[in-house]
Amino acid sequence: MRATEVDLAVIGGGPAGLAAALEARKNGIGSILILERERELGGILQQCIHNGFGLHYFGEELTGPEYAWRFVEQVEKQGIPCKLNTMVLHLSSDRVITAVNSTDGLLKIKAKAVILAMGCRERTRGALSIPGSRPAGIFTAGTAQRFVNMEGYLPGRKIVILGSGDIGLIMARRLTLEDAEVRMVCELLPYSGRLTRNIVQCLEDYNIPLRLSHTVTNIYGKNRVEGVTVAEVDSNRQPIRETEEVVPCDTLLLSVGLIPENELSKDAGILLDRITSGPVVGETMETCTEGVFACGNVVHVHDLVDYVTRESITAGRSASDYILHHKETGRRKEFVRTVPADGIRYVVPQQICLREHPEGLKLFFRVDGIYRDVRIAVKCGGQEICSVRRQKVAPGEMEVLTLKPELLKGLDSCGSLSVELVKGKEGGLRP
Amino acid sequence: MVYDAAVIGAGVVGAFVARELSRYRLKVCLLEKESDVAMGTTKANSAIVHAGYDAKHGTLKSILNVRGNELMEQAARELGVPFKRIGSLVLAFSGEDRTTLEHLYQNGIRNGVPGLRMLSAEETAAMEPNVSGTVVGALYAPTAGIICPYELAIGAVENAVRNGVDFKPECGVLGIRKEKEGFTLVTEKGEIRASCIVNAAGIYGDVISEMVQDKSFTIRPRKGEYLLFDKSQGNTVHTVLFPPPTKMGKGVLVTPTVDGNLLAGPTAVDVPDRDDVGTTAPGLEHVMESAKKSVPDIRFRDVVTSFAGLRATPSTGDFIIEASRTAKGFLNAVGIESPGLTAAPAIGEYVAGLLGKEGLPLVPKNDFDPIRKPVIRFRELADEEKQALINRNPLYGNVVCRCETVTEGEIVDSIHRPAGAGNLDAVKRRTRAGMGRCQGGFCTPRVVSILARELHIPVEEVTKKGKESNLLVGRKG
């Protein structure tokens, strides 16, 4: 078995891992190793051949592979070593990684700092317990996307999509362009929580019906899917039997949510947030386990890769600080917790260290429903310290709020920082 | 060529009958209408090796249950199939239930079940801390165990094939002609001659027996639905937990599986369709409600999948294992509902004995090898063993299924073994690739391309489970 030591090990060579590794190199870290289980770098971006990436970060519209290439090229230019086709089997709390591939066999890598960038996985039919038979033709949207865009095969010809997640919407358009018939997209909620531009560009432009407050209640077919039952749901999200309708199709795609992939984090005993299912992090993106940082979808599911890049740059910089200066962040001793209050599902970072923040501090969060005409307020010990107005907020669009440096002084007494929605006169849930 | 015996049905019963017959100098074939071993009742059941206190004393069920439980340890060892004797508890929630348990206990003693013991509420709670506070006592059976039923059947068929049995998948029997000597079986793959026939056709047992005009029984499909939980929940309970039994069966149990998941189920609903293995919303709801009665804090958010299976419930109330009265040389081994999995090794033994009495010469083979070639499970090896394995064959260094840590080496091996995997689900049952929390989201495209490469077929022809269950409909335009 090979044993090696590195300053920084990055688990995952997708957009998060690549940006973090590059930032670490920029900050003077020589010994870096990226571990990637795929045959190439770039992560899920490689199968996202549509455009719309990079508007925020690069100020131009790129496809997924183009966005990834900007980082892959830099990693190659910088000569940062990568191990491809390499699966990490275990991570210990003292940052020893066990990994495996065909050429090296088993690898033990002792790292001064580790960056977790494993991304996320898709929720499955099993997690929803959709009743019915178990024929071929039921795919998660991402698996179908891989078959079409990477392998060059069509998963089906008559398609029903359950869930209006972004990948589902993208696949509705993609399969239509491949001459498949997308019968409908069903969304359990009375609204689609996803990016408005995807609803318009992927469904409306192609006349694909979006059935809000609808779900799939049965799947038919012995060998291949022959149809599904679609039903409207009531306000408790329970199917209304009288509205059931059989829709013939040969394929059911599921786009019903993403789950940060944290099995390795659990191995290492890293504290996870029950709402995000990702590690609890500080503003440095350090987890509660010393020397282990995390960024991207492994922390919380992002809707824009541009934000993943920014977050990963923070993680790369912090990991470098830790390696070079053994910087005691102090977070474990003195920190304030951020608390999602009324109308807010979660806030990242979950902990904020009490020290100088010359550039201010960014809080990322999601709301728990669609609201119009609201104020988002940050409170410290019940006292409002700042707020912003929003015309409309939706769970599908991550919100960002910057706390200015002067606001952060004098926080040490409050213990926690809460983020909440304050509804305006016209406020309230709108379908 | 005329076979000495044709076994119809490659479920766990047919598998053990075929393996038992392969001990002797006989030409045996095993016919299966589906694409793989274990596609019927064997694929979807509670995966329990029962102690033997349930079956009414004196029934064939009771005898073969206790004998099967005895034989299981050796069978599992020879076939390299993990088996854990974790014990079982039948829970009592009231004084009335305690009386029911008392009767079970007495019945078990008469059946010869070793180690049975009545437990107090405190003893039960000490053994199973997550059990409901309303439990007033339990019947403990230390010899109960857990095993993977399809792995057991696959192991038995592999070993049978290794010892000379011809396994014929996708070879459904359409009719049987009684000849002067023996039978002609008309199958999907042509005619097959055999001196004897063993009917182990499960849910279709009565359909097959009617082909020789034996209408002495009927088989009714009784559906059971299950929920399977993530491995993180496997430690919720440590023994097999049953509620008190009812007329419809043993009720919804909660148990760890031998692979480390948690399993809850089954329902018991008679259905008209012999192929209806769909789950239903009321069925899954019933499993949740019932499981909560035994284990209130069971975590339904960690369900990874649900499934349903059909029990082959016989009109006679007992296993039907006997020579048919209508056709000499035709033997039924049907109506094998619970505890059929437990009884299977004993049924194999019993059926061989009956065939001997029918005149089949049982001359032992000198070269019978009871040991199945061991299956390598990469995830279970020590680091040094993993390294040595990869040095020998680098395919074991390529992890294909990340949730269950299954390597390409294991998948390739599963395809090329005797009675090997020919489709995605067959690979899954043999290696666990695709059985984890992402349910094949990540590994499906990879396993599909490995199957196409190893079987020398186009990717579009790879199926989920044989016969027209193609995963992909064509190449991109």
Structural class of chain A: alpha/beta
> What is the mean pLDDT of chain A?
92
How much of the sequence lies in strands of chain A comes to 25-35%
The CATH topology of the domain at 84-145 and 220-271 and 280-311 in chain B turns out to be D-Amino Acid Oxidase, Chain A, domain 2
Largest sheet of chain A: 7 strands, mixed
The CATH C-level class name of the domain at 84-145 and 220-271 and 280-311 in chain B:
Alpha Beta
Regarding quaternary structure, how should these chains be classified? heterodimer
CATH class of the largest domain in chain A: Alpha Beta
Task: Supply the helix-strand structural class of chain B.
Answer: alpha+beta
Number of structurally distinct domains of chain A: 3
- The 3D shape of chain B can be described as globular
Instruction: Please compute the radius of gyration of chain A using only Cα atoms.
Output: 23 Å
Taking pLDDT < 50 over at least 5 consecutive residues as the criterion, the unreliable ranges of chain A are: 427-431
Return the CATH architecture of the largest domain in chain A: 3-Layer(bba) Sandwich
User: How many distinct beta strands of chain B?
Assistant: 23
Distance between the termini of chain B: 48 Å
Walkthrough of the structure:
The complex is a heterodimer of chains A (431) and B (477). Chain A has 431 residues and is an alpha/beta fold. Chain A folds into three domains: 2-121 and 259-329, FAD/NAD(P)-binding domain; 124-256, FAD/NAD(P)-binding domain (3-Layer(bba) Sandwich); 337-423, Immunoglobulin-like, CATH 2.60.40. Chain A is built from nine helices and 28 strands. In chain A, the strands form seven sheets. In chain A, strands 1, 2, 5, 6, 7, 8 and 20 form a seven-stranded mixed sheet that branches. In chain A, strand 25 and strand 26 (383-393) form a beta hairpin. In chain A, helix 1 runs parallel beside helix 8 (305-325). Chain A starts with a strand and ends in an 8-residue tail after the last strand. By secondary structure, chain B is α+β, with helices and mostly antiparallel strands. Among the domains of chain B are: 84-145 and 220-271 and 280-311, 2-Layer Sandwich (D-Amino Acid Oxidase, Chain A, domain 2); 378-461, Orthogonal Bundle (Arc Repressor Mutant, subunit A). Chain B is globular. Chain B starts with a strand and ends with a strand. Chains A and B meet through strand 7, helix 3, helix 4, strand 11 and strand 15 of A and helix 7, strand 18, helix 9, helix 12 and strand 23 of B.
